Amino acid sequence: MKKNFVLTIITFILSLLVVELFFRVFYPINMQSWYAERINENNFYTLKKNYVHKIDRWNSRYYAKYTFGEYRNRVTQPLKNKGDKILILGDSFTFGLYLKDKDTYINKLQNEFSQYNFINSSVPGWSLEDYYLFTKNYCKTINPKKIIVILNDGDLARIREPAIRKSSKSLKEKNFIYRVLIENVMTVAFLRDKIYKINEIFAGEKKFSLKKPQKKIQGTSIEFDKMTSQEIVNDAEKIFLDLKFVSDECNALLYIINLGWTKEKNEDDIFNDPGQIFIKNNKHFFKNNLINFYNNSKLLKDVHLNNQKFIIKNEGHPNEIGSEKIFESLSVHFNEILK
Question: Is the residue at 56 inside a domain?
Answer without folding.
Answer: yes
